[in-house]
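Fig. S4 source data, part A: sequence.
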Amino acid sequence: MNMLAKAALVDFCIQWLCWAVAATLKTEKFYDLAGSSTFFLVVVQTLVWGERYFTRQKVQTGLVAIWAVRLGSYLVPRILQDGHDKRFDGVRDNPPKFLIYWTIQGVWVFVTLLPTLLLNLKKNDLSLCARDILGWGLWVVGFLFEAIADYQKSQFRSDPANKGMFIQEGLWSISRHPNYFGEILMWTGLFISASSVLEGVELLSVISPMFVAFLLIKVSGIPLLEKAGLKKWGSNPAYQDYLRDIAVLVPYVW
């Protein structure tokens, strides 16, 4: 079995085993933990399987691991504090439907990691180049956007004076979804770096950042939050001004 198939097997086995436990307990509280942990485990394991430990592989794997730890440390306390995740309303009590969500998470992990998995599979190395610096630079910018935006929102929500209000400060004053902007930048950067050594059909792994962008822009990210925002504050003139004046995703642009 090649490394990609082994990585996929590990990924989906984790999701389905977690689904079995979650469906039995009727809880989604460790869904995000399972996702971020799978990213960490799979990317580190493929580096070990590859047995080469080239600088590009180690840096790329390290960046994914850092992102996974940070995401998990942010999302897990949030779900424990909130007690539930609205995405799973009407789902957590329906095992077959619940399984779809866990399977989709497995697809998200594998497709998003694909450029890095292919990179860790490489047996031959090339010198670091401008593409690596560009890619890792984009990752740093994206990571800062996501981490700072999440921190600012967490601090805003923890202040009782802001209860029932929408955030429009810090990075949220230049983008309505700065964390998603950062997320897309990170995976775009990791593809750019990995593409330094990818060849032929391997370059189709550009689907990674495209898939992340599609999910956030068209499926589970922006559409759901924008709809919820309109339902909650749609009649608020200040919110209408915010929608008109602040970019949806890319600061100052779109």
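Fig. S4 source data, part B ends here. The CA atoms of residues 11 and 117 lie 12 Å apart.
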